[in-house]
């Protein structure tokens, strides 16, 4: 058992102060220190200064302090970043408990916390999925590019299994696509989906009534899933999803450190895996995946029609984001950087994707299984626009395009 030298020294100091000789045998049982050693401590025969052990975190103290300066980054978010395998030799291997103790011992993170109480509401396995958007997240890349995106967030009401999906926009089509991908990720559908009054789902008429978009209503009817709306200004109704959104703060640890969108997709994938398999839910006491084993059996299997719907093209027109990538059937295809901010039309089939600006064909891609598909000339021009030399453009472009193949 661990020897408590600090306790022994305090007790001996008290005995000396009141001029009483301690019971070394009793103190030995209490501190797990040999009675003869305690006697030496009492008579000051040896110097018993506590031994200072060097921690693997000592060399990272200032970096940890710097990361935690951001109000949006908590200790758990910082731990997620410092345990990233992409840090290679700088990756830490300690437990979260030891990391937290190190932060507290060195006063690296001081933040005020406000606690608000809400009633807890539980659902049966397979009953409910809570969904939400985490809006307008912005991260700077190491090249100085700003990636602004949204995360579709979904949480199963019973097991608390989470799913996050990257999305440039928050349209009706994005909502339907992400929800279908969520059901595919979980391997089945819940009976109900609970969401707030997001514009992608409802609009408000002149009398202030909430009206579900006809396209969304038909979508849920085809799925055989009931859509439930929260009352206005009551985000705690879908509190399990709101709680899961706190994990998104871990992405902010990568500000100015993420390489590109491919790197960001990898981090989001790791986030999904980590929070479902490694972090114990506060109420359940175990990671969500443990309870999901039982809940998955009660999910409704996706039908052939559902899988066909997964392949449906939801976006026939789109505004080109800063990345120069437009969405088609869950995959992203590039256009020239001069079309950023403009609306383009997408026409595709099972073999190719054609992209038009007004009536002019500006890009043609083969339908790919890759998540991200840049034409080499498009990616090179993006880098040249950043001011990179021709040599750097060629090197970085070839490396990045090769990585895109494995996402």
Written description of the protein model:
This protein is α+β, with helices and mostly antiparallel strands. The chain folds into four domains: 5-42; 58-105; 128-296, Nucleotidyltransferase, domain 5 (2-Layer Sandwich); 313-406, no CATH class. 35% of the residues lie in helices and 19% in strands. The protein has 14 helices and 14 strands. It has helices at residues 5-17, 24-31, 35-42, 61-68, 75-82, 96-105, 172-186, 214-223, 239-244, 261-277, 288-296, 304-310, 376-385, 390-403; strands at residues 128-140, 146-156, 162-167, 192-195, 202-204, 210-212, 226-229, 317-319, 325-328, 331-334, 343-348, 352-357, 360-366, 372-373. Strands 3-2-1-4-7 form a five-stranded mixed β-sheet, sandwiched between helices. A four-stranded antiparallel β-sheet has the order 8-11-12-13, with no helix packed on it. Strand 9 (325-328) and strand 10 form a beta hairpin. Helix 2 packs across helix 3. The longest helix has 17 residues, at 261-277. The protein is globular. The protein starts with a helix and ends with a helix. The relative contact order is 0.09. The model is unreliable at 115-121 and 233-239 (pLDDT under 50).
